[in-house]
Amino acid sequence: MGPFLSIIAGLLISTQNVFNSRLSEKGGSWAATTIVLGGGFLCSLPVFYFTDNVGLFQVGGVNPVYLFSGVFGVGIVYCFMRGISLMGPAYAVSIVMVSQLTIAFVINSFGLFGFEEQPVTLNKMIGIIMLIIGVLVFKLGDRLPFMKKSTQKANGWKALKEN
After folding, report:
1. Cα–Cα distance list, 16 to 20, 75, 76, 84, 136 (Å)
2. Between 20 and 30 A from 154 (CA), which of 18, 110, 113, 115?
């Protein structure tokens, strides 16, 4: 169930931020951020009341710092929306993905925020490095010396298909 929910979250995050970017074109970035987060609040409040068995402000025993995660939400929506506007969805999402995986790796490796410390392994390091290289290849493509031949071949196939 965890992988399925994570896939759904990825689909929703990417789609939401494309929509946010389009919304910001008409109303501005901060108006879009306010509308998006306000709409999210209005949607989540009734779901909370029907599903959770705790009061909204009964979060005793939680580190007060965690209550500021909503402020992170404002930064996430704004920065992601602007990144998509400036770079396009695919490149922005790929950079966000690398940064999310990297910070999650750091949190796990050092046992931050109450998570169990996980050992740093060569496989994990190689995975993050490969992900970063993949994003660079995705973005830079034919500007990388080792990609010139494959780009020329791809363009050659395209020319053949058009004739």
Report:
1. 6, 15, 12, 11, 24
2. 18
